[in-house]
Amino acid sequence: MVLTRLAGLIADKALGLPTKAVPYEVRKDVAVPMPDGVTLLANHYRPSGHDEPLPVVLIRVPYGRAGAFGQLFAAPLARRGFQVFMQATRGTFGSGGQFRPFTSERDDGLATVEWLRKQSWCDGRIAMAGGSYFGHTQWAVAPYAEPPLTCVMPHITSANMTDRLFYEHGVPQIHTALSWSATIGRQERPGLLSSLPDPRDRARVNRALERLPLQAVDVQVAGAPVPFWRDFVAHAEPGDTFWSQADHDAGYDRMPPVSTVTGWWDLFVAGNLADYTALRAAGVEARLVVGPWIHGEPGELRMVAQTDAVWLEHHLNGGPAPSGKPVRVYLQQANRWLEFDNWPPPDVRETLLHLGRGSRLVTRPEVDAEPSRFTYDPADPTPTVGGPLLSPPGKQADNAIVEQRDDVLVFTGPALTGDLDIAGPVSATIHVRTSIPYADVFVRLCDVDRNGVSRNVVDGIQRLDPRTSAEPGPDGIRTVHVELFPTAYRFRTGHRLRVQVSGGAFPRYARNMGTPEPFGTAVEGVSCDFEVLHDSDHPSHVAVHAL
């Protein structure tokens, strides 16, 4: 008990929580029957010496009910006096059935909520907490629960997994998908270190993604087939409805109060912010924090723990509401936080960065500017560095290795005479003619410092596919709209803005093979010639929002 209390004290200090703790008891391996006969197991945390019914904080997680995840997400709330029910999702860590991610969380979650409300120790009020996959388990339940949940905290996740994560604007996020497949494929194997990060994982994933076809490379990184990877490669084609069960963005108006935390370098940030905007438009009470973090970074986890404690105290115990405005975001490179009433922030000024002659960024399109050209070769796919990834390294990186290639167009603006602060969505409109109908358009905004080092700020990709894209005009030109990631960022005095345009970003995204063959089985590719137009009749540009 002394060691447990000491571990709890250390954890609370690391998370920035009060160190005065409420004693609690843990009942392990609590069985919850599902309608199909499968039994899911949970650990039940309850304040010591309390016999009366209490509200329940439900956490549904595929990574284990105990160990690091229990200590990070359940125990800190239990030490704040909350009753917590941490359940292993189907097919993981003692729960029955098969773990096929994103396919059963609605039914299992709703059955668990119904079961909890029948227990003598539950007063009928249920909140849900957690981030990433166990943020998804909240979206799978909260819009459908009746009576409604009391509140939820779906951090670093998105209501829509298909378009925002799996196949971002039609392009498979293969690095994220295979990295996660490697993790879940090995997490329950015997051995003391089986659940800990392995520094060799990224190298294994990168080597595997170099192979073609991709259909079975999960075996190379996990040692055995992983159901999620097989579903991911089998259901990527336009019109496939398999993943509709993973998307819950049709129920914003049915959500209880929502508190969410994410990071500018978190791969879920675009979805997180889109969810927040839609929730507020639907009249739902919601709060948002966005910091300078990559997925699961310690600072992000500290913010999750701190905001959860305040949110639950307010909604379950009648404590004070969170202070400050509903939106709090970190302005990168300025080392300061901004607060807004809404997202996107009001009173911003749209600024267009036009692609110009001589690889320049200009303030207005230039008459008769000649098109810029490059060729994308799937046998030598355009690489990417940095960006929002599932795990480090990510964030900002020196882009020299990318910008020196002849399949990347680079347009650079003049040195800034003052700081330029932007906050909000970032988008691009690119007028392009391609030699084949199957192609990707990747756009990246960079910050070039006084020494000439170019570092990525935000980027986005859009797939061109005759099965889903509008036909080009009679001249073969398409107007392609690319949604880049949102941001809040300061370009400092003396720095320059730079825009990259290319045909891919490998291995973060699957290479475009230039054919209609599914990406998991394709082995032969076709090169694509790009012609990017940026004259006054075809004003290709990137749009940012200046504060």
Describe this structure as you would to a colleague.
23% of the residues lie in helices and 31% in strands. It contains 12 helices and 23 strands. The model has no long low-confidence stretch (mean pLDDT 95). The strands form 5 sheets. Strands 13, 14, 15, 17, 20, 22 and 23 form a 7-stranded antiparallel beta sheet that branches. Strands 1-2-4-3-5-6 form a 6-stranded mixed beta sheet. Helix 2 packs parallel to helix 11 (298-317) and helix 6 (174-186) packs across helix 7 (201-209). The N and C termini lie far apart (53 Å). It is globular, with a radius of gyration of 24 Å. By secondary structure, the protein is an alpha+beta fold. Strand 7 (167-168) and strand 8 form a beta hairpin.
Short description:
The relative contact order is 0.11. The protein is built from twelve helices and 23 strands. The protein has helices spanning 2-15, 67-79, 105-117, 133-139, 162-166, 174-186, 201-209, 218-222, 227-234, 269-281, 298-317, 400-403; strands at 24-33, 39-47, 54-61, 83-88, 122-131, 151-155, 167-168, 171-172, 258-265, 286-294, 327-331, 336-340, 349-355, 361-362, 372-376, 408-412, 420-434, 439-448, 454-464, 478-491, 496-502, 528-533, 541-546.
Supply the number of helical segments: 12
The pLDDT mean sits at 95
Which structural class fits the helix and strand makeup?
A: alpha+beta
Q: In angstroms, what separates the terminal alpha carbons?
A: 53 Å
Q: How much strand content do the residues show?
A: 25-35%
Pfam families: Peptidase_S15, PepX_C
InterPro entries: AB_hydrolase_fold, CocE/Ser_esterase, Galactose-bd-like_sf, Xaa-Pro-like_dom, Xaa-Pro_dipept_C, Xaa-Pro_dipeptidyl-ppase/CocE
Keywords: Hydrolase
Organism: Paractinoplanes lichenicola
